[in-house]
């Protein structure tokens, strides 16, 4: 006999003839389970009944599972984004309420097992950790982990408290909490948060029942930390081994974050260490307090915006024109097997696409292919790929010098030298061989797409696909629509980018598109500060402390000083042709002297703002201080940081004003993933809109900067009007 509750409950209660109760998580009003009011009300009722029936001696054990594709999706992020500092008291109480329920479950006095049928991240994993045993199925790409830190949060539903008690401080922090690793079930088992893995859904509930039956008569049921004599694995923070390891932690963290003020890792560390010294209930309250402080603060809101909502908006196809069927490519031609072409070939081949990799010489084409071989070798060495898989991927790349091999390609991606004439020539050569349906893409980083399109026979099918270096690591691809580019070509380009596992943003044609334009303003501020006499170490540290993964002078070395001279020269030519004159660019004299007088062209030349010794990390070239730094300059750190952030944000606003970019999500994601705008800000638009006082506050501060540092910080009339009307991007 099975007795069930209402089918429409978010936590269904079924008891079978053996006395095994199954709690099935199944929110009736959503496609995934989240920690909303329906969940907590239903869980409360289920626990009331469970406690009654356990007291009556009717329950052998409990299985917790889910009827959704994923086990449980975690917290309700929409609700989390609304929580304000003044809501802290209410929020804390709600968190404690949900945690109190899980505490009741783990102290029910009968064995409780989590049957994890699909992905269990964040709150989902926290429910599973409140169970006494965890079995996961490995058949649908299930992921297990605590991604909270990547959203500026911590696992505040008991995740810190329980993982520390299961694994010890060191393993819990390093393997799960501080980096938000998402692991497949087997890996999760190896790292201690899963106990058993089964291969198919059919095996899951039988395995869970078998575990309950095997433990139904145990003398001691429950969590290890609720038993007498429980000791924290690896010892408490006063243990000599941990005492040696823990003090280094905040310092390492600071180093890893380069001094940037990410509140979440520090809160996680505090919650874990403070919690490790007290009983489980006190630890859980400490965790709730830290969680509340993160959830009510600004950083989590910004990070949730970018890393959850914006990414979701983009991956769900918001930038893709409507009414066009999804497409895939089987065979892609890559023209030019240099740094970018080789990387693009790798990205395609690893996603199952055949690649024709064409260059002018057989050596160059082979060299491009060997780039993929090297990357794959590393994976094989690390045990992340089999030798057979390596062979299969490599086998997909055909290096060639013969354009005839391009026959049958669904798309070509051109990545030859940055020269409009050469690009026209290789497209003409390719078009003779390609089917007349092939998508024509250029990876140009600076040349206007509309002009390049004039040289092909089908400008409607021509589009910019701007990859970032190194292609295998950089997730972003900026798609540039030319004047003639058709909606169909845009849809197909988005499909290609998604097929190779990258994130597309869409922009309209403009010199420097979106990303390079905005990036250029960071570089300009960096060299302007050199010109003003600021010490290079201060220039760089201000950036990393503001959360930039790479500071401006290091980045300028990376892209090379000569390239910026070239881009500047081209922009001046274009302006002159239009009868205009570009405004003086601060810092350009520094670049000219660095290159002209001192021969310091950048990283590739081994000499830029930094020296690059063979036997160690880069160091500042002493000449920068000698020739440019002034002892009596003292610009406040906050102003330097704001100059970077505001220069980039104001340029972002300008690209909206000019219609180059149209989506706030695309600007946030493009600025973070393409050009290293500090992730903790949530991206360039979120930075403006989330600024204290909103866009109006941003405008006020921009005017202050304009007064102190020059008219480039003056907000445009368009932006001021937007701020005054309260309109959002
Ligand atoms: P690269 O100099 O490493 O490679 C260019 C390759 O094109 C060379 O292997 C060359 O032999 C080949 N090539 C020249 N003429 C050819 C022809 N007629 N047929 C076939 N191949 C030919 O240059 P890189 O850095 O890979 O840049 C390529 C393109 O990507 C440029 O348009 C550049 O602006 C753009 N880009 C570069 C980025 C970077 O970070 N380097 C980032 C984004 C775009």
UniProtKB/TrEMBL annotation:
Domain 3-hydroxyacyl-CoA dehydrogenase C-terminal, chain residue ranges per copy: 512-612
Keyword Lipid metabolism found: yes
Reaction(s) catalysed (UniProt annotation): a (3S)-3-hydroxyacyl-CoA + NAD(+) = a 3-oxoacyl-CoA + NADH + H(+)
Keyword Lyase on entry: yes
Known pathway: Lipid metabolism; butanoate metabolism; Lipid metabolism; fatty acid beta-oxidation
A molecular function (GO) term: long-chain (3S)-3-hydroxyacyl-CoA dehydrogenase (NAD+) activity
3-hydroxyacyl-CoA dehydrogenase NAD binding domain segment(s): 332-509
UniProt KW keywords: Fatty acid metabolism, Lipid degradation, Lipid metabolism, Lyase, Multifunctional enzyme, NAD, Oxidoreductase
One Pfam family matching this protein: 3HCDH_N
Gene Ontology biological-process annotations: fatty acid beta-oxidation
Similarity comment: family membership: In the central section; belongs to the 3-hydroxyacyl-CoA dehydrogenase family.
Protein name, as recorded: 3-hydroxyacyl-CoA dehydrogenase/enoyl-CoA hydratase/3-hydroxybutyryl-CoA epimerase
Species the sequence originates in: Barrientosiimonas humi
Taxonomic lineage from the root: Bacteria, Bacillati, Actinomycetota, Actinomycetes, Micrococcales
């Amino acid at each position: 006999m099975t007795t069930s509750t209402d089918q429409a409950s978010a936590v269904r209660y079924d008891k079978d003839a053996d006395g095994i109760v199954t709690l099935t998580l199944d929110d009736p009003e959503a496609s995934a389970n989240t920690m909303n009011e329906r969940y907590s009300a239903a869980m409360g009722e289920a626990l009331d009944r469970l406690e009654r029936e356990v007291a009556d001696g009717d329950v052998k054990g409990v299985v917790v599972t889910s009827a959704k594709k994923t086990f449980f999706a975690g917290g309700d992020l929409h609700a989390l984004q609304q929580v304000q500092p003044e809501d802290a008291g209410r929020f804390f109480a709600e968190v404690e309420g949900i945690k109190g329920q899980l505490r009741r479950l783990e102290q029910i006095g009968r064995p409780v097992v989590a049957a994890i049928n699909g992905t269990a991240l964040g709150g989902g994993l926290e429910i599973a950790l409140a169970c006494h045993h965890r079995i996961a199925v490995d058949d649908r790409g299930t992921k297990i982990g605590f991604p909270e830190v990547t959203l500026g949060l911590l696992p505040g539903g008991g995740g810190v408290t329980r993982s520390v008690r299961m694994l010890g401080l060191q393993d819990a922090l390093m393997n799960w909490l501080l980096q938000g690793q998402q692991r497949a079930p087997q890996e999760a088992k190896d790292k201690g948060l899963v106990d058993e893995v089964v291969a198919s859904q059919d095996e899951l509930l039988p395995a869970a029942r078998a575990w309950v039956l095997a433990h139904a008569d145990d003398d001691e049921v429950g969590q290890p930390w609720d038993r007498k004599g429980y000791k924290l694995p690896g010892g408490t923070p006063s243990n000599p081994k941990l005492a040696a390891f823990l003090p280094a932690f905040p310092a390492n963290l600071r180093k890893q974050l380069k001094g940037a003020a990410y509140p979440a890792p520090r809160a996680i560390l505090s919650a874990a260490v403070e919690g490790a010294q007290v009983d489980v209930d006190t630890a859980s309250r400490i965790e709730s307090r830290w969680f509340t402080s993160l959830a009510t603060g600004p950083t989590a809101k910004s990070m949730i915006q970018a890393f959850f909502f914006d990414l979701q908006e983009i991956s769900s196809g918001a930038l893709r024109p409507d009414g066009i069927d999804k497409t895939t490519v089987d065979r892609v031609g890559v023209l030019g097997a240099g740094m970018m072409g080789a990387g693009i070939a790798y990205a395609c081949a690893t996603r199952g696409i055949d690649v024709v990799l064409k260059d002018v010489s057989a050596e160059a084409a082979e060299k491009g292919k060997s780039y993929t071989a090297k990357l794959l070798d590393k994976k094989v060495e690390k045990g992340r790929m089999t030798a057979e898989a390596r062979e299969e991927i490599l086998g997909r790349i055909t290096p060639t010098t013969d354009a005839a091999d391009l026959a049958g390609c669904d798309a070509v991606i051109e990545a030859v030298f940055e020269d409009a004439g050469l690009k026209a020539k290789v497209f003409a050569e390719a078009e003779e061989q390609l089917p007349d349906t092939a998508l024509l893409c250029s990876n140009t980083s600076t040349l206007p797409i509309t002009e390049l399109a004039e040289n092909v026979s089908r400008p409607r099918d021509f589009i910019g696909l701007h990859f970032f270096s190194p292609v295998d690591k950089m997730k972003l691809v900026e798609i540039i629509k030319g004047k003639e580019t058709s909606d169909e070509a845009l849809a197909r380009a988005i499909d290609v980018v998604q097929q190779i596992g990258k994130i597309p943003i869409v922009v309209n044609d403009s010199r420097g598109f979106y990303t390079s334009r905005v990036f250029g303003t960071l570089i300009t501020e960096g060299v302007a500060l050199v010109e003003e006499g600021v010490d290079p170490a201060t220039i760089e540290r201000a950036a990393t402390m503001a959360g930039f993964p790479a500071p401006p002078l290091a980045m300028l070395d990376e892209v090379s000083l000569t390239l910026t001279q070239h881009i500047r020269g081209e922009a001046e030519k274009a302006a002159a042709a239009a009868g205009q004159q570009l405004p003086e660019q601060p810092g350009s004299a520094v670049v000219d002297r660095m290159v002209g007088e001192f021969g310091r062209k950048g990283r590739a030349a081994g000499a830029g703002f930094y020296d690059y010794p063979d036997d160690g990390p880069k160091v500042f070239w002493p000449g920068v201080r000698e020739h440019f730094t002034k002892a009596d300059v003292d610009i406040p750190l906050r102003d330097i940081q704001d100059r970077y952030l505001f220069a980039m944000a104001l340029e972002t606003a300008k690209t909206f004003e000019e219609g180059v970019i149209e989506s706030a999500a695309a600007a946030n994601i493009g600025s973070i993933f393409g050009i290293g705008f500090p992730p903790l800000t949530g991206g360039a638009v979120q930075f403006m809109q989330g600024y204290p006082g909103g866009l109006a506050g941003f405008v006020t501060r921009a005017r202050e900067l304009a007064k102190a540092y020059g008219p480039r910080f003056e907000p445009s009339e368009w932006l001021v009007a937007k701020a005054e009307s309260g309109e959002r991007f």
